[in-house]
Amino acid sequence: MSQSQGQGPALDNLLTESRTFPPSEDFAAQANAKPELYEEAKADREAFWAKQAERLHWDTKWSQVLDWSDAPFAKWFVGGKLNVAYNCVDRHVESGHGEQVAIHWEGEPGDSRAITYAELQREVSKAANALASLGVGAEDRVAIYMPMIPEAIFSMLACARLGAMHSVVFGGFSAEALRTRIEDSSCKLVITTDGQYRRGNPFPLKPAVDEAVANADCVEKVLVVKRTDSDVEWNDRDVWWHELVDSQSDQHTPEAFDSEHPLFILYTSGTTGKPKGILHTSGGYLTQASYTHHNVFDLKPETDVYWCTADIGWVTGHSYIVYGPLSNRVTQVVYEGTPNTPHEGRHWEIVQKYGVSIYYTAPTLIRTFMKWGADIPAKYDLSSLRVLGSVGEPINPEAWIWYRENVGGGKAPIVDTWWQTETGAIMISPLPGVVSTKPGSAQRPLPGIGAKVVNDEGVEVPAGGGGYLVLDEPWPSMLRGIWGDEERYRDTYWSRFADQGFYFAGDGAKYDDDGDIWLLGRVDDVMNVSGHRISTTEVESALVSHPTVAEAAVVGASDETTGQGIVAFVILRGGAGADAGGADAIKALRDHVAKEIGPIAKPRQIMVVPELPKTRSGKIMRRLLRDVAENRQVGDVTTLADSSVMDLISAGLQSGKSED
Ligand code: WTA
């Protein structure tokens, strides 16, 4: 395919995928979002967002929808006041839905608990009273380091209710990672558990907190939920949840806070070692989390059972387990454990048990399900599923189709949702009753959102062209900065296209001939081979579309002749056969990529490996693979979910190496 036009180089648009799946008439007729939503937003963006904000309860109405005069620091719904927790809990009880189940919680060992909105209101009120008794007030920071148990959600909502900011730190992070996050935002309180269940076994969690707070003077108290009955060391600052919270009053009057009152900080990794504390505020964040959840997932509070498989340690858990869904009066499943405990059909068993109708997960998990085999979901009744979602990385068309056929019964629309910790809520996604979906494409900005693909000069590329994804209009749930580092906020997101005033997302993207957007991975994951920019994602997608390949990771390794050469690491499918790793088979794979994308994308080298190095959130650590590909000593592996993976890869390479 041709080089993009416009000025300067841009990503070559190589992979072609032409299948489309229009919504069924029945789905379109009942959908929350109709085609007019696009028209409405286009006609008057601010009026459109004001209408979305009106879906919430405001104690005081705003006087101005958007104040962008202090860009890049936005103010949305200026002068408005609301309580975020009241919007997610109390108002549903007041409107007569106290007996509706909010959360069907499923513990990893098989224990479960159904929590109604009335009960949620009592639990959150008790937790808020308890936190207040420990001296937590508006704008104080509270670290939450917990597994996926109901108390984690009660804690987040209790903070929101008091106007305190939570900083949830993923329970799989180390003591050191927790320490830097607690100290960066001077947390006053840490909420944790004695231990957590992981793959069928209890593991202690509190020792990591003890280590993290040992020298953290900011921390006054550690509130501990008993989950596993592990032996714990007890310190003066420690308080048991069941001793403090259970004896509190279950009545608590929420106070209304300013629309721009801070709601939470969530740390995310950047290009330097120091994590960025992404700051979100109240009114705009909740408006967009709620609006997107209602329209993208088509939630019907009376009939749907929703399940987002993320952890609350990530933004997806914040926006699509806690704030978006609860503001829409969801009935949802929250699952504590891993997908293969005690068996590889656990998710499908849960879908069947609760009649889950909306399921939102990540491509890495979909590819894992593929690896385990289609016969596993086939054993369960998944007919309740009517909308499927994907988030976190580009979903390759092969996985998309597998998901549609083996999970969605060949008919549930799939929404591929692009967004970031920084954007707070979904930005690019098809609307399931309006847009004909395309495997692998997030397609178009949601109504009210401005996103474009531009070249190096910030000029929008034409249909068929590739470049950088930018957001060209402020949006309600945008980050309001990086905690304590205004300079870094401006530098990271606003300096690249400062002249145009665009937010730079850091992702490569392209338009197809219909003008739909395809995400191509982070720009640092884009390779440059003989002057052609090729996305690692496109090559990975091509590899995974071969019948013998379960998973693939591609890196650009420096190459004397071509600048970068493409090096691929592949995991073969279970049934691939003994020859699948042999020289002929590797050649066939290289030819397959050449056929799918073009000879330019043919990997220089393909290595068969037993596992890929992934972070705890499932992102492939290409940096480590690049070390292997460039014959360097492998760098820091401390953020890997399983640090033995690199040893496995090195061992596997002795047999699987192939070059020509
Ligand atoms: C990537 C997760 C392609 C992207 C919500 C983004 C995606 C980063 C998609 C943010 C998608 C997320 N298609 N890429 N549907 N969704 N990404 O902050 O590179 O953990 O910049 O937020 O994930 O990751 P984060």
TrEMBL record:
Post-translational note: Acetylated. Deacetylation by the SIR2-homolog deacetylase activates the enzyme.
Cellular component annotations (GO), alphabetically ordered: cytosol
PROSITE patterns: AMP_BINDING
GO MF terms, alphabetically ordered: acetate-CoA ligase activity; AMP binding; ATP binding; metal ion binding
Keywords annotated in UniProt: Acetylation, ATP-binding, Ligase, Magnesium, Metal-binding, Nucleotide-binding
GO biological process: acetyl-CoA biosynthetic process from acetate
Binding site for Mg(2+): V544, H546, V549
EC class of the enzyme, as a word: ligase
Binding residues for ATP: G392, E393, P394, D416, T417, W418, W419, Q420, T421, D507, R522, R533
Domain AMP-binding enzyme C-terminal stretches: 538-619
Cofactor(s) annotated in UniProt: Mg(2+)
One Pfam family from the record: AMP-binding_C
Chain ranges passing through the membrane: none
Acetyl-coenzyme A synthetase N-terminal domain segment(s): 36-88
Disordered: region residues: 1-31
E.C. number(s) listed in UniProt: 6.2.1.1
Binding locations of CoA: R198, R199, G200, N201, T316, N340, S530
Family: Belongs to the ATP-dependent AMP-binding enzyme family.
Database matches in HAMAP family: Ac_CoA_synth (MF_01123)
Function: Catalyzes the conversion of acetate into acetyl-CoA (AcCoA), an essential intermediate at the junction of anabolic and catabolic pathways. AcsA undergoes a two-step reaction. In the first half reaction, AcsA combines acetate with ATP to form acetyl-adenylate (AcAMP) intermediate. In the second half reaction, it can then transfer the acetyl group from AcAMP to the sulfhydryl group of CoA, forming the product AcCoA.
Protein name: Acetyl-coenzyme A synthetase
Organism: Lentzea tibetensis
Gene: acs
